[in-house]
Design goal:
Elements: H1 2-35, H2 39-54, H3 63-68, E1 71-98, E2 101-102, E3 106-130, H4 133-139, E4 143-145, E5 152-154, H5 166-170, E6 173-179, E7 182-185, E8 192-195, H6 197-204, H7 210-215, H8 225-231
Parallel strand pairs: 5-6
Antiparallel strand pairs: 1-2, 1-3, 3-6, 3-8, 4-8, 6-7
Length: about 240
């Protein structure tokens, strides 16, 4: 009996290690794909993603929620792939409200994985709203996990959708995704969000953290002009 238990434990450990190796390799491939794009291009894609989402009244983020949000995170084209293990990796930008405007965009990256019988690849646009001070502090940390460190809920869809339910009023983070034209709420529980200092080095010439960019009064780069313009439209102001 003891030998049987030992053998079962060894098989479980081997399978678990194999899954972790497959996931690490999958995330590495997704990382290489994400690095092919320049931060300037990614900023442009972030602005386009937000503009397209908000241009469809029946499939947009409710303006009432956007007006209450302290920060926004936009990740255009988050890569998802699966070969028995699933992985997702994306790079984007966070910006928070400052007196009279939005802060310079702080590069962030999202990563996560899942297990199970799955095959294929996909690309998904992600938009997250940070709704309160606790969520803001999490965003300004170097790394946090959605679900474990910050509570997140899937957002309602439609520019005039109700935004006063108890869940939404107390949410730290509200999320949406767009894939193959379909726009829907998403929670992204288990996803890791962290400052992308290597991207900040490419964009600003310094490996600044999200806190340093957002709280430090850093001037937005020229490449962020379209991004700032989309966020700063009068209709989205408080």
């Amino acid at each position: 009996m003891q030998r049987s238990k030992t053998g079962a434990l060894a098989r479980y450990s081997f399978i678990h290690m194999l899954k972790r190796l497959l996931l690490a390799g999958l995330l590495g491939c997704l990382l290489l794909t994400a690095q092919e794009e320049t931060p300037d291009k990614r900023l442009q894609n972030s602005a386009t993603t937000f503009r397209e989402i908000m241009a469809a009244p029946d499939h947009a983020i409710p303006v009432a929620l956007l007006k209450r949000a302290l920060c926004i995170v936009i990740v255009p084209g988050m890569k998802k792939a699966a070969f028995f293990v699933g992985g997702q990796y994306g790079r984007g930008f966070a910006s928070c409200r400052t007196p009279g405007d939005w802060s310079a965009p702080a590069p962030v990256r999202l990563r996560g994985g899942s297990f199970g019988a799955q095959m294929g690849a996909d690309s998904t646009d992600i938009v997250l709203l940070i709704m309160n001070q606790k969520g803001l502090e999490r965003l300004l940390s170097d790394k946090f996990s959605i679900g474990a460190d910050m509570a997140a809920v899937a957002g309602p869809v439609g520019r005039n959708a109700t935004a006063d339910t108890d869940v939404l009023l107390h949410a730290e983070m509200i999320g949406w995704s767009r894939s193959r034209g379909a726009f829907a709420g998403v929670s992204l529980n288990g996803t890791i969000v962290e400052s992308d200092k290597s991207e900040a080095q490419r964009l600003y010439g310094r490996p600044w953290s999200s806190r340093e960019i957002i709280r430090g009064g850093i001037a937005p780069p020229e490449a962020a002009k379209a991004f700032q313009t989309e966020l700063g439209r009068d209709v989205y102001r408080k």
